[in-house]
Backbone:
């Protein structure tokens, strides 16, 4: 990854450079990198009003200060001799990098998905993730939660991004989703029994509380940052087993309690109402999809303080793909047509009732980089732009347990910012086109003309 100085030189932005001559005895610690970002409008903390004409001062990867007005390098807190770069976003609206709480970076929808289950290797999946990580970052998402990938692929991709070997968002990775035999998450569904060995807890397939505990412990052992479980049937699993609860209550409790014991947040995929409510009663941290939520679900969400991650875009997308003959097998097509149209209504109901919402799309079920579609669907359902942005920043960071690092533009957090033309607080659709993405204080994308 190019360093700040080379980016600044290439962009003609370098304002003052460190003294070039160094004595042979000089210490080898790298010089401090300072950056001042001049923002025409700055939404530093979503939920509060934006500032006009403000500066974000960055030291190395993190925010040092937010100041009113356009601070010059000689007015900055940088010590004498430090490199200070200036990024001019005076005619842009700047806000925190967005966070998508539900993506699958190793995969993307295809009518060949079933064939890929037996042809695609983990190496293929990792290379997919390299491409999709870049698209996701370019779409303004500087952090994501990946809720389901096979093997150890997503952990390797996460680590490569954190090391600066490849570009991409910060990833909170669940690894393999924990599923019962034949559940949503058992990739061997619908295949002849001799095609795959029978999967067990080490492959994330668990029946009974002890196996569930082992499955969670194994994901954490391999590197999971959070845990995903499939509480109910799912649309895209190749089985006609419906969309209702599939883990028993004691299995749900075993997964969630083990995750919490190991200090990991737990997310539950859930469509059917009994599965939603059972997962909430067992103390899950978020419900994904929530298609058939009811008044009791809303009461439980509020009582437990759990987040709802709607993934409206997944519903709209599968409904659309189900219109193409042969895109899905018949059992999947039926579920897609049933569930697709309902998620936006479930979201509207939960939002109006005051349930906490964290932004999530299920990208991968539709093309990566189109995550912005969710913003428009949320607006269509009645959510105001400032609340939508908050759901994709402050709330999402809270759900990931990452509030100390991301979600707002405040001293101490990573300098993850995006810049757009126009005012997203008036028209959320301006977030479809991100002009500049800054991650850890470095320009990751610059599409300004
Ligand atoms: Zn998903």
Residues:
């Amino acid at each position: 990854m190019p360093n700040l100085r080379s980016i600044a030189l290439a962009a003609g932005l370098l304002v003052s450079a460190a003294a070039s001559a160094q004595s042979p005895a000089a210490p080898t610690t790298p010089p401090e990198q300072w950056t001042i970002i001049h923002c025409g409008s700055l939404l530093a903390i979503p939920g509060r009003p934006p500032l006009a004409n403000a500066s974000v001062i960055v030291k190395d990867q993190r925010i040092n200060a937010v100041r009113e007005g356009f601070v010059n390098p000689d007015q900055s807190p940088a010590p004498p001799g430090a490199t200070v770069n200036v990024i001019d976003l005076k005619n842009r609206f700047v806000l925190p990098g967005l966070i998508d709480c539900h993506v699958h970076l190793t995969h993307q929808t295809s009518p060949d998905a079933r064939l890929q289950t037996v042809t695609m290797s983990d190496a293929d999946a990792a290379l997919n993730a390299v491409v999709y990580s870049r698209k996701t970052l370019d779409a303004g998402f500087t952090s994501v939660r990946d809720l389901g990938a096979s093997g150890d692929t997503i952990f390797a991709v996460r680590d490569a991004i954190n090391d600066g070997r490849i570009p991409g968002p910060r990833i909170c990775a669940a690894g393999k989703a924990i599923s019962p035999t034949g559940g949503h998450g058992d990739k061997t569904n619908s295949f002849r029994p001799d095609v795959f060995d029978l999967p067990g807890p080490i492959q994330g397939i668990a029946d009974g509380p002890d196996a569930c505990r082992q499955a969670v412990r194994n994901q954490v052992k391999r590197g999971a940052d959070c845990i995903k479980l499939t509480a109910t049937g799912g649309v895209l699993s190749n089985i006609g087993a419906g969309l209702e609860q599939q883990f028993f209550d004691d299995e749900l409790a075993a997964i969630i309690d083990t995750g919490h014991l190991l200090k990991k947040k737990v997310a539950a995929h859930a469509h059917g109402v009994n599965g939603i409510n059972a997962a909430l009663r067992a103390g899950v941290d978020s419900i994904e999809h929530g298609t058939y939520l009811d008044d009791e679900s809303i009461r439980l969400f509020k009582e437990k303080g759990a987040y709802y991650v709607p993934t409206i875009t997944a519903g709209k997308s599968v409904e659309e793909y189900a219109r193409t003959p042969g895109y899905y097998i018949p059992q999947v097509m039926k579920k897609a047509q049933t569930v697709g149209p309902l998620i936006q209504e479930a979201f509207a109901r939960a939002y109006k009732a005051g349930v906490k919402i964290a932004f999530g799309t299920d990208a991968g079920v539709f093309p990566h980089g189109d995550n912005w579609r969710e913003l428009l669907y949320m607006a269509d359902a009645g959510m105001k732009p400032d609340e939508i942005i908050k759901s994709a920043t402050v709330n999402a960071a809270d759900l990931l347990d990452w509030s100390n690092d991301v979600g707002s533009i405040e001293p101490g957090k990573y300098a993850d910012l995006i810049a757009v033309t126009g005012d997203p607080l008036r028209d959320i659709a301006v977030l479809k086109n991100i002009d500049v993405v800054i991650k850890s204080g470095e320009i990751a994308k610059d599409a300004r003309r």
